């Protein structure tokens, strides 16, 4: 998809073309000076790539860094955007994600602004995203250094026994992370084996969870806020399973939060 309609203030500036991770051609002001981020993990990445003064809007779920969460204008959530607020911010680049953002809102924004979309399904696409955003914002060297640091830290990550693992992200209905997800890549990175053969995020019944008989169940802190009571609920029907509450950011945030993931994984009591 080629971006055609540019605001008047945008047309007089230097324009660059690139592809996003959906294969669309994006034309945008380079280097962009007014960036809106629609994805929490990519917002944190922008911070760590050193463009604080150029990010003008984030979502209400962009909690890292705390200073941005408190100070930056909020453009809504990751699904429903405040289009009027975005218009007031006059972005020359919007950065989103295929899975986290609703397609209709992205279509509306793409009719007015350059929108670069990531599509993260595994480790490789996460690294490509970091490199891609580095290129977008003229921070190639910092992005390359960040990726090198992440990869070096993961070389020392603990690898657990290949235990059959169920990673649950939602309740009512129960939902788990399956294949073709970044979470599945992270599970594999630490030696565990995802017991879900289906792709994406299949719905499960309690009966199907029991039938899977996972050796390990990881209850994510996001998007559903699992608590100790949910461990007790599952432990009653799966007494032999090891059940843990885990930090969902460490398994599902695919930006610079990966710097902190190896130490966290090494601390897990499995």
* Strand count: 12
> What is the name of the CATH architecture of the largest domain?
3-Layer(aba) Sandwich
Count of separate DSSP helical elements: 12
The computed structural class is: alpha/beta
- CATH topology-level name of the largest domain: Rossmann fold
Name of the CATH superfamily of the largest domain: Nitrogenase molybdenum iron protein domain
Percent of residues in β-strands: 15-25%
Amino-to-carboxy terminus distance: 46 Å
Short description:
This protein is of the alpha/beta class.
Structure description:
37% of the residues lie in helices and 18% in strands. Helix 6 (123-136) packs antiparallel against helix 7. Strands 7, 8, 9, 10, 11 and 12 form a six-stranded mixed sheet that branches. The chain has a four-stranded parallel sheet with strand order 4-3-5-6, sandwiched between helices. Strands 1-2 form a two-stranded antiparallel ribbon. The chain folds into two domains: 8-153, Rossmann fold (3-Layer(aba) Sandwich); 164-266, Rossmann fold (3-Layer(aba) Sandwich). The chain has helices at 8-11, 40-48, 66-71, 83-89, 103-110, 123-136, 140-154, 182-189, 206-212, 228-237, 248-252, 261-266, and strands at 15-19, 25-29, 35-37, 55-57, 93-97, 115-118, 164-170, 174-176, 193-194, 203-204, 216-220, 242-246. The longest helix is centred in the middle third of the chain and has 15 residues, at 140-154.
